[in-house]
Q: What sequence folds into this?
């Protein structure tokens, strides 16, 4: 039995602005086990990203509690790679280590090992400008993995890529995370992406976000995201989640 | 400008490269032609009496004046004083300006409190402060340096601050997700990302510093190129005025290209294809 890594208990979050206060999250509870890959889908603007910000410790919940049973801060991957243009690829993957004053020879060697393992070592002394979008996003992942976090928060990390690259990079990143045995939470608005990558999909309602449905994904055949897209059950999951989300879009539009 | 043609290029591509080369050469030649033509016409007009050399001077008279100043050792004395004042004023203005910009970036509240003061200081012609500076710092080099500093300071603060605030919130968010402190965000992201903006701010403020120094020298000095210009004007020696201006042109250009060279060296990552 895998042990629990993330626990959210009755979490509420309210944003305050000069003109209004907005309830972003309403009595949200969920648990995530070590090694699980969980996707969160929901109508746009429903507060999915707020959940990640809470998990990353960038904000505090207004009510309720959120726990991560790990000493390290979770790694966070954003929509864009935000590689620093003036640093080489090597300099970029060391950024997290430098910020945390962890740039020991062993940790640096580990970061370079990751770069080598995932086929980017020849670009070590290149500048980000010289890399394609897909490669840049892989460098961003290695920057996140370099500090060896147990939990990874992925905030629509493929949405800035074109479709072809997106499928390929999702496939690669999925296999990297599996190989490194990481726990991951993926926020996305792309239902296919959620089903193809995760063990479990959490469906959020429109704002204020709360957990409405939960699907354990069991697909037959090849376990890579590209392979999973071809599984016979894929379409059923897709239709089910699509209908659930469509219902919220309609009620929130009224 | 002769570049070697790449080995396996088509005749069409070769023609294209040659065309670029020709254009480059034309621009360079045209630049020199304008200078030479201007000098030659000026000399010819002065000698044929189209312009009165007593009022309009002439290239040969400027050359003679330059040689005379050089011979009696005055030339480099004046150049040195003006250059010293400009460089010190420019460097201090840049340092203080960047420092203040960092403070204003650090505290949004402070920035909002001081905003109207910055606007007024920016709009105020700093030359109006001349008499006050003379009373406070004495009629000498100190006042001139302060004038140069003041003129470049506000411009530096404002343009560097704009550069800082252009750094996207998302880059800062990334740093926060990595657990960075505000000081780390400043030194690891905001400052290096702003180097291009700071450098283009420097190109503006280097010109501002020259204005400050020359105006300062008009007001108080006993030496320097600005002094020579005012003195020459008062005793009606237009040769001296013109000579000083020519020297000033050369110095200002050299300093500007110095900053531009520094910029090229510092933002190498921008040009990396």
A:
């Amino acid at each position: 039995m895998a042990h629990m890594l993330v626990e959210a208990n009755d979490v509420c979050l309210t944003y305050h602005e000069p003109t209004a206060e907005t309830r972003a999250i309403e009595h949200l509870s969920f648990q995530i086990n070590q090694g699980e890959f969980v996707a969160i889908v929901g109508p746009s603007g429903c507060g999915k990203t707020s959940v990640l910000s809470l998990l990353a410790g960038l904000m505090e919940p207004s009510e309720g509690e959120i726990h991560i049973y790990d000493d390290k801060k979770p790694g966070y991957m954003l929509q864009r790679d935000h590689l620093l243009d003036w640093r080489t690829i090597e300099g970029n993957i060391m950024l997290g280590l430098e910020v945390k004053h962890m740039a020991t020879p062993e940790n640096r060697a580990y970061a370079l090992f990751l770069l080598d393992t995932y086929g980017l070592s020849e670009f070590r002394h290149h500048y980000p400008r010289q890399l394609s979008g897909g490669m840049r996003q892989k460098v961003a992942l290695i920057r996140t993995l370099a500090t060896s976090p147990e939990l990874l928060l992925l905030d629509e990390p493929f949405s800035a890529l074109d479709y072809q690259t997106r499928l390929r990079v999702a496939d690669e990143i999925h296999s990297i995370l599996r190989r490194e045995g990481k726990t991951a939470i993926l926020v996305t608005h792309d239902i296919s992406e959620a089903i193809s990558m995760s063990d479990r999909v959490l469906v959020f309602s429109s704002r204020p976000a709360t957990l409405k449905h939960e699907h354990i994904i069991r697909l037959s055949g090849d376990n890579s995201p590209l392979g999973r897209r071809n599984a016979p059950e894929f379409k059923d999951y897709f239709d089910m989640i699509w209908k659930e989300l469509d219902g919220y879009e309609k009620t929130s539009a009224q | 400008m002769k570049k070697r043609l790449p080995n396996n290029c088509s005749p069409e591509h070769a023609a294209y490269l040659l065309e670029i080369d020709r254009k480059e050469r034309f621009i360079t030649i045209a630049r020199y032609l304008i200078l030479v033509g201007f000098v030659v016409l000026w000399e010819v007009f002065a000698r044929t009496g189209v312009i009165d050399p007593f009022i309009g001077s002439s290239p040969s008279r400027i050359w003679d004046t330059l040689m005379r100043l050089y011979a009696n050792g005055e030339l480099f004395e004046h150049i040195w004083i003006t250059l010293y004042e400009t460089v010190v004023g420019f460097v201090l203005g840049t340092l203080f300006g960047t420092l203040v910009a960092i403070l204003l970036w650090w505290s949004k509240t402070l920035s909002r409190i001081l905003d109207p003061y910055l606007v007024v200081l920016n709009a105020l012609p700093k030359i109006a402060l001349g008499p006050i500076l003379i009373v406070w710092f004495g009629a000498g080099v100190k006042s001139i340096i302060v004038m140069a500093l003041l003129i470049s300071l506000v411009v530096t603060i404002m343009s560097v601050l704009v550069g800082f605030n252009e750094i996207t919130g998302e880059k800062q968010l990334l740093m926060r997700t990595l657990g960075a402190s505000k000081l780390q965000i400043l030194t690891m992201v905001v400052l290096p990302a702003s180097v291009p903006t700071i450098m283009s701010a420097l190109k503006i403020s280097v010109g501002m510093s020259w204005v400050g120094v020359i105006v300062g020298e008009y007001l108080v000095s006993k030496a320097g190129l600005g002094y020579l210009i005012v003195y020459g004007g008062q005793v009606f020696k237009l040769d001296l005025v013109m000579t000083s201006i020519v020297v000033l042109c050369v110095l200002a250009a050299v300093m500007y290209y110095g900053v531009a060279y520094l910029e090229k060296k510092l933002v190498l990552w921008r040009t990396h294809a």
Observations:
- The longest helix of chain B spans residues 182-220.
